[in-house]
Design a protein that fits this description.
alpha+beta; five-stranded mixed sheet; four-stranded antiparallel sheet; 11 strands
Length: 261
């Protein structure tokens, strides 16, 4: 599932492919990815407009045009692809934006769990993103500690709740908690101040590395690089990793590096 680093990569694709270019045509090949707008209204609103500088908040992407804003969420399998207008269309290309200079931006999505919205003004954007917490890459330490200290429930559940902190998903949360040596089922508001500060520092480090890679990289030195192995071992201490489910999510941690309490 795309997480913050993936969506930041899509933002960079959008910026390099489309920023400053006029939208010559909008071809909706599958209206099932449109939310609150039909294909005709999407074409009428965007054709002739020019893409500006895109923005990201958590897992949401805002493609501004100086008028209406195209809002994208990638669900589990969505992505943005930049190519040429005469490139062959693939089976999962749902919406094609033909741009000036012969370029084409494509929203490609196999499972269609989220998709595209059209926001006419800032009030529309606020309605779509109003329940989102602060962006995980932009939040400062004071606000991060504040939202955790007031949060009931398990630590991992808090980190992956988009209304608490926007952008973290399953892989990032497990990686960050492993690096911070904190069990995922610890109560979030019971952390000591030193724990919260360490957690924030490890989140920042993990996000910076992941954004540079364009994903949560499955490196040998990372928990992510071992979580799907048949007999997964902690890359730090060699202990067998534990698996469980929290909030319906597969969760992986090291019982030695991430002890109780």
């Amino acid at each position: 599932m795309p997480e913050l680093p993936d969506v930041e990569g899509f933002r960079q694709v959008l910026e390099s492919c489309a920023k400053g270019r006029v939208i010559r045509g909008v071809d909706v090949r599958d209206a099932g990815v449109l939310h609150g707008v039909d294909a005709r209204r999407l074409r009428d609103a965007l054709e002739g407009r020019r893409f500006g500088t895109p923005e990201r908040h958590g897992k949401w992407l805002l493609a501004r045009t100086g008028g209406p804003t195209l809002v994208l969420h990638f669900g589990m399998t969505g992505r943005l692809v930049c190519g040429r207008a005469d490139d062959p269309v693939e089976a999962h290309d749902r919406v094609l934006f033909t741009l000036g200079g012969g370029r084409q931006l494509r929203f490609r999505d196999q499972r269609k769990l989220q998709g595209l919205w059209l926001a006419h003004d800032e009030a529309d954007i606020d309605r779509l993103l109003g329940r989102q917490g602060p962006d995980a890459l932009a939040v400062d330490r004071r606000e991060f500690e504040s939202v955790l200290a007031s949060r009931r429930g398990a630590l991992k559940t808090a980190l992956t709740d988009q209304s608490v902190l926007a952008g973290l998903g399953n892989l990032l949360a497990d990686e960050i908690l492993w690096r911070a040596r904190l069990r995922p089922d610890r109560p979030a508001r019971d952390l000591a101040e030193t724990d919260r500060r360490r957690l924030y520092s490890e989140m920042r480090r993990t996000l910076r590395s992941s954004v540079s890679a364009g994903c949560v990289p499955p490196r040998d030195s990372w928990l992510t690089g071992h979580r799907d192995e048949r007999d997964p071992r902690c890359p730090r201490c060699g202990t067998g990793l534990r698996r469980s489910r929290m909030g319906g999510r597969g969760t992986v941690w090291c019982p030695r590096c991430q002890p109780d309490g």
